[in-house]
Specification:
Helices cover about 40% and strands about 15% of the residues. It is of the alpha/beta class. Strands 1, 2, 3, 4, 5, 6, 7 and 8 form an eight-stranded mixed β-sheet that branches. The longest helix has 17 residues. The model has no long low-confidence stretch (mean pLDDT about 95).
């Protein structure tokens, strides 16, 4: 049973889009997919079979002021307009609809990680939590703290899934996978610092103390998980697909040339999955 994990990473998630486009072009299908933040959006297009759909989001739509930017922040207190991305553009009457029926009918299991703002714990949504033109669980997973207000579902506030389970490899194995591919958007020897996370934690601590604790410890959790999956890869139990360089791209950097390069890096790295599956 093949599982794919896409950890997201804001606009750096275009690397994962490249990997998954290679998979679609080469008929590589998984039995289980779990996405974190932008990785959940990548996974939805992959499981719906829409090759290069997400490429357009990263390289065209992301540059629109309706998508994200200072104007959005001033207008709505959200740097990223999640409703524009995952409703206006993605609904059945949108500019580039998600093929929901194809996603629904794909036999692969699909999970989306979000962080419960009250408990600070991960919540694993499934595609059964989505319906046609209701992709709120993806919005919740992509809700970056500090630059976005929490996204509410059934009265519960949610933040980015990477705060609580940045590399959900344990979940993949728990779901029965015996082969796992982890798509990272940083080099696999790149460990995460904590300075920025601590600043964000201070900003949300008063209203969401447990979520603040989760983000304050995100770097430690990510680094621990990264060390563990590196060991699993050495043992042949898992494959890490990661860029060798990200050219200084940060989570919300908009640099078209660098984004295109990262996409093509991802596409080229996809061949490693073919080799891994032949073993």
């Amino acid at each position: 049973m093949l599982g794919i994990i896409d950890v997201g990473g804001g606009t750096r998630g275009i690397f994962g889009t490249g990997v998954l486009d290679f998979c679609m072009d080469n008929n590589i299908r998984c039995d289980y997919f779990i996405g974190v933040s932008a990785g959940s959006a990548n996974g939805s297009s992959y499981l719906s079979g829409q090759v290069r759909r997400n490429h357009k989001f990263y390289t065209e739509y992301a540059f629109r002021r309706e998508y994200m930017g200072i104007m959005q922040l001033l207008k709505t207190r959200n740097f990223i307009n999640l409703d524009y991305v995952y409703s206006t553009l993605s609904n059945s009457d949108g500019e580039y609809p998600l093929d929901y029926s194809a996603l629904r009918d794909n036999p692969a299991k699909f999970e989306i990680v979000a962080t419960d703002g009250i408990t600070g714990k991960p919540r694993y949504f499934s595609k059964e939590d989505m319906t046609q033109d209701n992709y709120d669980v993806i919005k919740a997973s992509c809700c970056v703290p500090a630059v976005c207000k929490p996204y509410y579902i059934d009265g519960v506030p949610y933040y980015d899934g990477g705060m609580s389970d940045p590399i959900p490899y344990r979940r993949a194995f728990e779901m029965g996978c015996d082969k796992v591919v982890v798509i990272l958007t940083r080099p696999k020897d790149s460990f995460r610092g904590s300075d920025r996370d601590l600043k964000i934690a201070r900003r949300i601590r008063r209203k969401f103390p447990n979520a603040a604790k989760a983000i304050a410890s995100r770097g430690r959790v990510y680094n621990k998980q990264l060390k563990y999956i590196t060991e699993l890869e050495r043992e042949g139990k898992l494959l890490i697909v990661a860029p060798d360089d990200i050219s200084g791209l940060k989570t919300l950097t908009k640099d078209l040339d660098q984004l295109e390069k990262l996409y093509h890096k991802g596409y080229a790295e996809g061949v490693k999955i073919l080799r891994y599956l032949r073993k």
